Fold Beta-glucosidase.
Amino acid sequence: MTAVFLYGLLLFAVISIAIAVAIFRFKVRASEYSNWGAFGDASSESGPDGMDSRNHLDNDLDSTGNDPDSTGDGDAVEGDLEARAAELVSQMNLDEKASLSSGRTFWTSASMDRLDVPSIWFADGPHGLRRTLGPEEREESHPATCFPTAVGQAASWNRELTMQIGSAIGVEAQARDVQVLLGPGINIKRSPLGGRNFEYFSEDPFLSGKMATAHVRGSQSEGVGAVLKHYVANNQEHHRMSVSAEIGGRTLRQIYLRAFNIPVREANPLAVMLAYNRVNGTFMTEHAELLHVLREEWGYEGLTVSDWGAVQDRVRSAKAGLDLEMPTNSRNDQELAKAVRSGNLSEDILDRRVRKTVETALRGKKNSRSEISFDEEIKARHHDLARRAAAESFVLLKNEDGFLPLDPSAALQVALIGAFAKQPRYQGTGSSRVKPTRMSSVHDGLLDAFGEKQVTYAPGYPYGEGSGDVKVLREEAVEAACQADVALVFGGLPPGSEAEGTDRSKLQMPEEQNRLIEAVSEAQPSTAVVLSNGSAVAMPWHEEPKAILETWLAGQAGGEAKTDVLLGDASPSGRLPVTFPKRLADTPAHLNFPGEDREVRYGERFFVGYRYYDERDIEPLYPFGHGLSYTRFEMDSFSLNTDSIDVRSMQEESGLEAEIQVFNAGDRTGQAVLQLYVEGPEKRLRRPPKVLRGFRKVSLETGETRSIQFEIGKRDLAVWDDRRSRWVIESGEYRVQVGASSRDLPFEQKIEVEGVPKDQGPLLDRHSTVRQWLEDPQGRRAVQPLLRMMGDAEGRDRDDQSDMRDIIANFPLSKLALLSLGGTAEKMVERIVQQVRSNEKPPDTGLDDPKDT
């Protein structure tokens, strides 16, 4: 009995320990899922500066928009929906399943009354809701708040603010009975000429991913699903429906896939949209390899939906992993049923695809909030949010002698020049175009502030209904500037130059605007230029005006926001999310954009945006991250928590920590944007000089000092190794830099990083050179006996052998052995390769779990 009792006690203890370990691993895994790669979110501070704690951003709501504390177990809810979807699909016949594989109308998925499967209403929503008047309507839509486009949201560098925008759009979607928003767009701005650059966040995948994460969390907090688009490499409009983006593995992983990976991990979007284009020859809707990355490596379990009309072969796309084709396509539905009947497609695959669609529809119905109405109170509140968001997005590129802000109490005569002052460009052209609830203009705002007697207006250039002779309009504008104390010129890109379906042909603004700015600046030294554009532009006149304010495409409240910033009621706090080059020839993709014969080679590799300018040592017009303020910030006391670290000890709670003090040394409240970059060692794997790995936006009163913390994780140090097909961290000296832009990083700390030994050096094989074998510790031990045999075979002494190694260092090992020992060397080389490869198992670094790849 005693033995039995002891055995039972021992068994109970073992089970308890196992359960405890499982719970601990689950918590660690959950923490990694929500926070992996997060950088600069570790502070517990919260407040109006938009930099609330990581807990606020990650834990308030689950992926369906429900409060886990108020609705019960989120996993149980997910399980119920999955089980219900599976049950409904099991009751369908083959033709019914196939009928749910594409949309019912242009904007809605198919429903099934017999089983009470509801329809899903999709609507565009990157910067505002575009809910059309009917399910087949393509153009006319209901009024909605038009927020700054994605480039402006990214320029705010404010995740909390972007989350609020996503939330507001989600509320309006609920009021219009929309279950899924087609946004945000997260494609990388490979070239400034991209026609939809206004609709995407940044040239940098880290900034893009973090802003997209905030946007998704915002909309899904209201129970409305978000769709990340366009997966992947949809970086141009030229031949966008058929072009093949030819991209290397490292470039895909480190730039284009990384931008999607961050929000997939940290926000769990309801759906991911598959792009029109091909990648390395295969259409994205049929790209089994890249859908495997999304599903299996990243662990994504949401819906995959095609871009509208993107499907080429419905059966192949179903096999690859596409769940729902949009819009309606009954012919392709029939093709699926036919393929199942013929044995060309497993019915189990079709079931899995349909279950995702049904589950999404059930979730949309469950999260519906019919009590919400888009009333005047909500319209006013969202307009105020759009105004604040626009003001935070503006980037003060230049401000000589503190020219801005203007003082409305001063007796100034102000000349407003440029048609954009009265007729603002506030969004791009294409599927994301929103019908605003109201509009504002900077002309009206400044007129109210200064009074009619102090403000004159001249259109300056032809635009819209106010067209006229270019020369006459310019002369009238110059005359108005000469009669005033201050001239404000409003220019930018015309609507047709930034549109879905077409790329820009040049970096320049319209020539009539460039000449206008030059003429006004020459006639009136007290001139500022206010730009409205969705991507970088050339500024041949940039030295002439006193100030340059970039306002992007600022949405419906942009006019009021411009007034706020020009008069100092708001201090500009935006920073460039893209590099502004001096000329098109300086841009990374210049020789490979937009490609030819429906193929575009990403020849710049991962040297995209500022990475390229740093690598080539090219001075941009304005660098990535640049932006001025009406106040002055000082940084001090930058430190790391250690000067050396072993990556195997880096866990989520004990990684590399950085801290810096920031002080408002100016005479007004403002928001500082601190940027942290990591520079890796120059080892086997080439890398950019530095990459963004953290940012914080913080509001400071005059004289206020705050301590800002950053957390650096393993992924922030890792690069993709194509040969090993995994992330690796190379040993060596890393530099952590902090400052105000990618070209203004006055603070630096060095840290010695010890990587996993098996990640160091090349992956050796029979084609590796003798030098590579000798530089690898394991390879050196394995190959030295063979090298001694080769030396003995040719009768050389040790000195001769050493000299010979220098001469033949670049010979492939197999070729050198063949030349020295003849045919007998082949088996010896194979044994050596197998010996080294047997020790090449993936190291346990936390980077090689398929869901961490």
Summary: Confidence is low (pLDDT under 50) at residues 1-72, 848-853. Residues 640 and 658 are 4 Å apart (CA to CA). The first strand starts at residue 122 and ends at 124. The two ends are 52 Å apart (CA to CA).
